[in-house]
């Protein structure tokens, strides 16, 4: 089912700015729905442009199908007009299509789909897989190019071919190739969202449309300010914000994501520091380093002063 070019253009316009791939709060017994809804309200108030549910930061692989839908519905109930994208990872195409059909009954801005992991289908297999998903989807497809998680490299030519599908509108770019990023932006067929947080400003300056940034869980207002400054061609303040954020970004990914994020969010009282095995909690040493780095960031850019 391909969308018209007009509806495709309208759908792609939403994929810009700062999107947060939400963590999934847990208790010892299950998903913490109250904490999840609190997070949505917190980030909506911070001015982010969209939310991604059940991505890798959301520990989607540790959630069964029913839990994933429950998480999605809780987020949608709080998101209001804030656009929401649902993660869709898997390597059993029939099962993926079943889940896609269920997601299509929700008011989503799109689904975020990586290549089928582990099976390494090659370029033709990956092309056919994404085209099948895009044909079947009731909502736009966002490609997730992340070879270090899937084991499947998506060549530039493959991504450009997929850009010709009317229902494929954007890419979360974790491909690890500046040449590929430049080619995708220059082509213009897909909105290019930085998926590596340290590449966010460079992607914006090259003409990318935004970022899906896990580290934006911390001081989302500064990520939004950096994005807005870059769009306004105010490069000096954008650079100043980026360099202030960079130490925090590095620490967020110094141990397996989302362990460091959950440690910091727990210190803020937003959730419990609970992850599902085999994902480990952040070490106490890293949690302390991250807290100190955020405190230094807060001293440089106090939240109240920024809002004023």
TrEMBL record:
EC number: 4.3.3.7
This protein's GO CC annotations: cytoplasm
Pfam families: DHDPS (PF00701)
Residues that hold pyruvate according to the record: 57, 212
Main location: cytoplasm
GO biological process: one example: diaminopimelate biosynthetic process
Domain of life (superkingdom): Bacteria
Alphabetical keyword list: Amino-acid biosynthesis, Cytoplasm, Diaminopimelate biosynthesis, Lyase, Lysine biosynthesis, Schiff base
Catalytic site positions: 144 (proton donor/acceptor), 172 (schiff-base intermediate with substrate)
Pathway info: Amino-acid biosynthesis; L-lysine biosynthesis via DAP pathway; (S)-tetrahydrodipicolinate from L-aspartate: step 3/4
Sites annotated Part of a proton relay during catalysis: 56, 118
A single GO molecular function term of this UniProt record: 4-hydroxy-tetrahydrodipicolinate synthase activity
Catalytic activity: L-aspartate 4-semialdehyde + pyruvate = (2S,4S)-4-hydroxy-2,3,4,5-tetrahydrodipicolinate + H2O + H(+)
Quaternary assembly: Homotetramer; dimer of dimers.
Function: Catalyzes the condensation of (S)-aspartate-beta-semialdehyde [(S)-ASA] and pyruvate to 4-hydroxy-tetrahydrodipicolinate (HTPA).
Protein name: 4-hydroxy-tetrahydrodipicolinate synthase
Organism this protein belongs to: Bordetella genomosp. 2
């Amino acid at each position: 089912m391909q969308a018209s070019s007009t509806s495709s253009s309208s759908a792609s316009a939403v994929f810009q700015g700062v999107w947060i791939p939400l963590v999934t709060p847990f208790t010892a017994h299950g998903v913490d729905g109250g904490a999840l809804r609190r997070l949505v309200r917190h980030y909506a108030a911070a001015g982010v442009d969209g939310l991604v549910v059940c991505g890798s930061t959301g520990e989607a692989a540790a959630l069964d199908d029913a839990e994933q839908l429950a998480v999605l519905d809780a987020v949608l109930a709080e998101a209001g007009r804030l656009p929401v994208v649902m993660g869709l990872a898997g390597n059993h195409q029939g099962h993926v299509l079943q889940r896609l059909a269920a997601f299509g009954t929700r008011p989503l801005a799109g689904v975020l789909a990586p290549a089928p992991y582990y099976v390494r289908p090659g370029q033709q297999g990956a092309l056919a897989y994404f085209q099948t998903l895009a044909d079947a989807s009731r909502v736009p497809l966002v490609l997730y190019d992340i070879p270090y998680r899937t084991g499947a490299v998506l060549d530039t030519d493959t991504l450009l071919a997929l850009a010709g599908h009317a229902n494929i509108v954007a890419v979360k770019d974790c491909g690890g190739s500046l040449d590929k990023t430049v080619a995708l932006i220059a082509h213009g067929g897909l909105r290019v969202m930085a998926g590596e947080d340290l590449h966010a400003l460079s992607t914006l300056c090259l003409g990318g449309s935004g970022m899906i940034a896990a580290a934006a869980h911390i001081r989302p207002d500064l990520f939004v300010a950096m994005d807005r400054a870059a769009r306004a061609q105010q490069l000096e303040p954008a650079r100043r914000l980026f360099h202030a954020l960079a130490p925090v970004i590095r620490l967020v990914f110094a141990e397996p994501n989302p362990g460091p994020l959950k440690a910091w969010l727990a210190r803020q009282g937003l959730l419990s520091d609970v992850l599902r095995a085999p994902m480990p909690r952040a070490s106490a040493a890293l949690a302390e380093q991250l807290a100190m780095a955020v405190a230094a960031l807060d001293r440089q850019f106090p939240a109240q002063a920024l809002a004023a």
